[in-house]
User: What shape does this take?
Amino acid sequence: MKDKICIGLLGLGTVGTGVVKIIQEDTCNLVEKVGRPIVVKKILVRNPHKARGVNTDAVITMNVDDILNDPDIDIIVEVLGGEEPARSFILRALDAGKHVVTANKNVVALYGREFFEAAERNHVDFLFEASVGGGIPIIRPLKQCLAANHITEIMGIVNGTTNFILTKMTNEKLDFDVTLAEAQAKGYAEADPTADVGGLDAARKIAILGSIAFNTRVNLEDVSVEGITHITAQDVDYAGQLGYIIKLIAIAKETAAGLNVRVHPAFIPKNHPLASVNDVFNAIYVKGDAIGEAMFYGRGAGEMPTASAVTADIIDVARDIHHGVSSRILCTCFDDAQVCAVEKTESPYYIRLLVEDKPGVLAAIAGVFGAQQVSLHSVIQKRKEEGHAEIVLITWRVPDGNVRTALRILSGMPIVTKVQSVIRVEAEEIDGI
Ligand code: NAP
Ligand code: HSE
Assistant: This one.
């Protein structure tokens, strides 16, 4: 038996640096927890001359072969990010018989099945706790602690950038563009925030969570995605007046029509557990038949929170190595539930229209919704301006396809100046409005 467990770290950026710090400082007593020391032996970077936030005795290399071909290295920790070369390096590591830990949701969402098959073939572990929710434990809880449950719903705020923006829009009554600019200036949002504000980052995460919660492979293309770029201060204000708060939610839910997997901004009742999750914090709310409701809350990103999850995976693998076991919990997608088309998903909707202010307009609009079987819960005239009226409609729970068809017809009618907003209401009931 080797006297220590050696790691090859791919990447020494934000997360990699945090991992090195945790292992070096060892405030968590690694030897006692694992049974043997854990040592970072080699690190792959792009630029060996870059100043780093940590001093390390590890060999720094630009050649991945130095790491993948090193027989002393037991665990590869992929914290490069992106699709390639991360995917190829992970597959090569697994095929070389090395255990792999990754924080990379891009590759897990797209190539999870391929990684699990390679891990199974080679009798090694493949762990990815940090890929969703940063420091929040959620993958392991779903796969292990909640394994005795039939999960019916998983709903999360899994993107810190958009949660920061929406929190600021809510508290300070600011529009999206102003808030995004501030988030970028403060370093919360990336220089290119497209994947965050467009919902793709959250879509990757819910594809991973949905696959685990429902034991069914949920592909990224199965997720219906809508971001927050069209949300206005006016919508946030009306949501507040109606007793709701707007959040970007990622949801995977079992319904009679099949699995419902989507990312979109939604009106959440102010008393929902997710409504009080603010700023860059993330939370994942789970419903199971045995546990009932549970919520996991914390920091979804950042150097040390994310390194906490990555290092916990390293500890898990190291324990397996120490005890001579491996690949105990790999792919859990033994089922094949159907993901239903977005048009068939049902919600109540908040709709804001700018219309001509003259007799008969409301009746004509109600007629279009009625013809598409969209039942209206309430209609409120909010503002008037120069021959136009702004009306807010709340529908009962209706299929998405029916709402979209009604809105397409309305958009072509001269009495409708503009369909300003369409936002789902994510609530069990809407009687409070
Ligand atoms: P990062 O700061 O950009 O660091 C990436 C590291 O990988 C850098 O050290 C870079 O080398 C190295 N690298 C990238 N491409 C490379 C290549 N082709 N060859 C060699 N080295 C390469 O990224 P990060 O924020 O640490 O994120 C790492 C992973 O964690 C990503 O998958 C991300 O999605 C995930 N994650 C991050 C967070 C977070 O808060 N940051 C949270 C959850 C999950 P150089 O330093 O030489 O440029
Ligand atoms: N960009 C992500 C967020 C963090 O804003 O939450 C990494 O997953």
Q: What stands out?
A: The pocket of L-homoserine (ligand 2) is lined by residues 159-161, 196, 201, 300-301 (CB under 6 Å).
